[in-house]
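FAQ

Q: What does a record look like?
A: Structure on top, sequence underneath. For example:
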């Protein structure tokens, strides 16, 4: 391998470790960002050279490299907020949002209602949903979620199912 090969292996390790620290720093910086999904640095070794010219066990590594930075799409925890327009996704999927530049997908569910009554995110991107026809059936197309327009009048709640555990030591 020689001194240059040994130095290259060491330098590649330091360089790759630096990239890993950048990924960790990004995860920490965005820890409180709504809908943020952390990343993980994945490593691989650089093709080894053989001391004897064959494929025997006398392999010497040439260092390490950053193979990929993968986003971790594991389910996060749900948090209670004071806003009735904040939403969360349980499992797989994304919210669809649109602006003049196109359509985008996000896991961040911190939404508000703009002046036109349309559900928007903090950048003003309009949340998209399936358009219903006059009968309330899905039309197959998507459009802005306008919360001031309804296809049906509101209906009062007639029954509620409630399940709870009562403290057995309390008086009846």
């Amino acid at each position: 391998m020689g001194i240059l090969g040994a130095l290259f292996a060491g330098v590649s390790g330091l360089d790759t470790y630096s990239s890993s620290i950048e990924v960790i720093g990004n995860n920490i910086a965005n820890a409180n960002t709504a809908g943020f999904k952390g990343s993980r640095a994945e490593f691989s070794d650089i093709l080894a050279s053989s001391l004897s010219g064959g494929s025997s066990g006398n392999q010497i590594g040439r260092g390490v490299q950053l193979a990929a930075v993968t986003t971790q799409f594991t389910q996060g925890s749900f948090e209670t907020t004071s806003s009735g327009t904040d939403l969360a996704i349980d499992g797989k999927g994304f919210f669809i949002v649109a602006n003049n530049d196109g359509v985008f997908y996000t896991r961040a569910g911190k939404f508000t209602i703009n002046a036109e009554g349309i559900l928007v995110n903090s950048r003003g991107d309009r949340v998209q949903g399936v358009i219903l026809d006059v009968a309330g059936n899905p039309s197959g197309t998507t459009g802005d979620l306008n919360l001031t327009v309804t296809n049906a009048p509101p209906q009062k709640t007639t029954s509620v199912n409630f399940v709870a555990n009562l403290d057995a030591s309390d008086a009846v």
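Q: Is there anything notable about this one?
A: Residues 2-29 form the longest helix (28 residues).
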